[in-house]
Amino acid sequence: MKGLDKRINESLDFLIENEQLLGRELKTLFHSFKEEKIAVGFSFGKLCFLHYEAFVDNVHEDIYKVAAAVELLILSFDIIDDLQDKDSDYSWCKIPEFSLNVALAMLVMASKTIEDTSFEHKRSAIRLLEEYALKSINGQQLDLLNNCRDEDSYVQMITQKSGSLTAMSCLIGEVLAKGEVSREVQEYGKYIGIIQQIKNDIQSLKSWGPKNDLLNKRYSLPIIYLLSQKNDISKSVVNYYNDNIVTVLDNNSIENELKNGGAIRYAITIKNVYKFKALKDLEQVAINELGKDYLQKLMK
Amino acid sequence: MNVIQYLEQNSSLVTLLKEQNKASLIGISSIEQQAILEAFNGELNTESQIWN
Question: Can you name one GO molecular function term for this protein (chain B) (predicted)?
């Protein structure tokens, strides 16, 4: 998989350098933002590649450009999300005005890159990109509104916000190879995003800093569980969320309640439900062992 | 959520659930039961591989 990351990274460099309509200032920012994402790896581009490779006899070189295009869209959404949340240390948060232009350029370049390939089914791929990107933006809006305060609405929101992006990455690869998409890939692609988002939500509660959802009065599954409890700690958190009275939060007690009162276990249970559903759907899809292994890791 | 709350307060039931056929959760699908049991088995690796 390291080799694949390298190929996607090279394609990103190629796309940035060869975009005639962008000046040096934008290209320099483009490169620096992309460099910061190398450490995380290009998971979305890899999902796209794996679902193309699985259904073709010969891999066309253009698929690396498409995988890079998918990563451009994801990076643009990451930048916009961080600018909206104001909770990140990435360099794009330093000068938001400039970063917004980079994000806009990335978005346009994502579909333009696919359009410029020689794939027979590139129009279908672009339609998927547009459809799922809009779904994700709608999910992002729901997230910002912070109104999803029960399990159903919260899961629906993360399905749109996060599940759309992982599903899109898988489906673009599949449609370029086959000209059609399958229910199984659509479903488990979506579940991967849900699983990863729930894990991210749990992780946010492990540090008592600016990214902590509870301190920011945000809702996620463990917090929804905690707020539904009837003990003194949950009552103090409810007061904090409602701004009823000046509340001093005892971080040790809250961390202990989250861990030992069932909140984290509840979130892990929901994540596990999607894991088992995803693994079941994956069994129906003919992907090579290396690809299956990679997908299974993302489902856990 | 209610099931997790109940099991948190009745840990002996979790033990019975782990020993197959000694207890079952009515209205809970097999996937949900499997998900619950795995969560109670202490799996706490929650670092996302794609978001941070």
Answer: pheromone activity
